[in-house]
Fold this sequence. Notes:
Layout: H1 7-11, H2 14-44, H3 49-73, H4 78-94, H5 106-133, H6 136-168, H7 170-189, H8 205-220, H9 223-254, H10 258-285, H11 288-308, H12 312-340, H13 346-375, H14 377-398, H15 402-420
Helix pairs in contact: 2-5, 2-6, 2-7, 3-5, 3-8, 3-13, 4-5, 4-7, 5-13, 6-7, 6-10, 6-12, 9-11, 9-12, 9-13, 9-14, 10-12, 11-12, 11-14, 13-14
Amino acid sequence: MARQADIVDTLRNRNFLALWIGQLVSQIGDQFATIAVLMLINNLTDSTLPLAILALSLTVPQIIFGLVGGVCVDRLNRKAVMIISDVVRGLAISTVLFIQHASQLYILYLAIFVMATVGALYYPARNAVIPNIVPDEMLLTANALIQSSQLIALIFGVSAAGLIVGWLGTSFAFAFDAVTFGLSAAAILTMSIPPLTNHPTQTSARAIWNQLIEGLRYITNSAMLTNVLIITSVATLGFGATLILGLTYLDLELGVSAQRLSFLYLFLALGMVIGGVILNHLAARVQINQVVGTCMASLGAAIIVFALAPNYPLVLGAVVIIGITIVIARATLATITQALVPDEKRGRVESAVNMVIGASTSAAMALSGVLGDLIGVQVAFVAAGVITLCSGVAAIFALRGVTAAMQAQTQVTGSTATTGS
C-alpha cells in the first residue's frame, strides 16, 4: 500500500472534518438517549418485554429496508439523503418527550423504528461519499477515524451521560440527542460532495428491483468482495463477543468492581488511537492482505488472553491490543470495499456491509448469551478468540491480490472520469 496521510492531515480536509464532527456529536447524543431510554423503561414498567420490542424496532428496519436503502443512496443526492436522515431522526427522538405513561411506550417503539429506517439510508450514504471527499492517500486514515468516533462517543457516554441524565432527567437527554442530529445536519450542509454522474433515472418498481439485484450480483460475482464481507462479519463477531461477554466475565471470574470496569473503555480507546497512528506506517510497508490477516489473528489472540488472564492488568493489556487491531482491520476492510466498488454501485454495497455488520452484532449477542450459559463464559470467550485467529490466517490467503484489484478499479474509475470529461 502507498504511504497514507496522517490523522492531522486528514482532519484538515474541510469536508471530512465536517462529516466526522457531525457524526461524533450525534453519536454522543445517541449515548445520552440510550441511557435515557433504559431509565424511562425502568421508571414506567417492571417488565423486560419493552426491551425485546425495542430490539425488534431496531433490527426489523435493517432487514426490511437495508438493501433498498442502498438503492436509494445510488439514485439520489447523497448529501441531501444524509441531511434529511439527520433531520428525520432528530424529529423522531423528539416525540419521545411526550411519553408520560407505560401505555404510551408505543411512541418510543415507533420513534426507534423510524430512526433505524432512515439510518439504513444515512450510513451507506456516509460511507459511499468518503472516497468522494478525501484523496486516495487519506482514505485509510479517514476510515480509521470513522471507526474510532463511535467508541469515543461510547466512552463519553459511559463517563458523562449517566451522571448528566441522572441529574437533568430523561427529557434533557432526548432533547439533547435531537439537537445533536440538527448539528450533524448543519455540518453536512457545509460539505461539498460531488454529485453522482451515472445514477439511473427510471423510478418504476421494476427498475428499482433490478438495481437492487444488480448490486447483489456485483457482490456475488466478485470473489474478493465476498471474502471482504465474510472477514468483516467474523471481525464483528469477535469484537461483539468481547464487548458482550467481557463485563460479565470480569465480574464473575475476577471480581472486578464496576468502577474498574470503566477503565476497559479507556484502554480500548487508547488502543484505537494507537491503531490509527500505526496504521499509516503499516500502509507503507506491509501488503494489505497481511495487514488484515495479521490484525485479525492478533485480535483473536488478544481475546484468548483476555479470557485466560489471571489478573486485571493483563486484561487491560489485552484490551489495548483489541483496540489496536479492530481499528486497523475494520478501517482497512472498509477502505478495500470502497476502493473495489465504482461510485454508482457503492451505496448498495455499503448497505450490504451494514447488514452484515448488523447481523453479526445480533448473532454475537445471541450466541454469546446462549454459549455463555451452555459452556461457560470463559470457554465461549476462548472459542470466539480461536475462530477469529483462524479467520485471520485465512484472510491472508483469501485477500491475496486485493491490492492489484484495487489498483485496477482505480484505473477504470480514472479512465471513466476522463472519458466523461
